[in-house]
Design brief:
Elements lengths: L3 E5 L7 E7 L2 E7 L5 E5 L13 E3 L2 E3 L6 E3 L17 E6 L2 E9 L7
Antiparallel strand pairs: 1-9, 2-3, 3-4, 5-6, 6-7, 8-9
Keywords: 2Fe-2S, Iron, Iron-sulfur, Metal-binding
Pfam families: Rieske
InterPro entries: Rieske_2Fe-2S (IPR017941), Rieske_2Fe-2S_sf (IPR036922)
Length: about 110
């Protein structure tokens, strides 16, 4: 499946998450304070909560409901109560376009 435009880079605010959906897959797109765009699964593995409603700090996204923090680069939970990772998707930038293919994930723990 080819990568799909999910938003424009100009639509992303630093240190916030934006929820997008590609072929039924909910994804949280984050522009971190260093200017890197990340894409991780938008559903917390602990409580089935939208992560894009959470808090971005450095390279983590924290679930607003129970406080689990997920690495934006590996998808691994860094704090309890979550213990299962979320998927991390490959992000491609084409000018101002942010492209994601939900069928292509970064292997857990590999980072970017």
């Amino acid at each position: 499946m080819p990568a799909t435009k999910v938003c424009s880079l100009s639509e992303l605010a630093p240190d916030t998450a934006k929820r997008v959906e590609v072929d039924g897959v909910p994804i949280a797109v984050v522009l971190d304070s260093a200017g890197t765009v990340h894409a991780i699964g938008d559903t917390c593995t602990h409580g089935d909560i939208s992560l894009s409603e959470g808090f971005v700090e450095d390279d983590t996204l924290e679930c607003w409901a129970h406080g689990s923090k997920f690495s934006l680069t590996t998808g691994k939970p860094l704090t309890l109560p979550a213990y299962e990772p979320v998927p991390v998707y490959v992000v491609t930038l084409d000018g101002d376009d942010v492209l994601i293919d939900p069928s292509v994930t970064v292997p857990s723990g590999a980072g970017r």
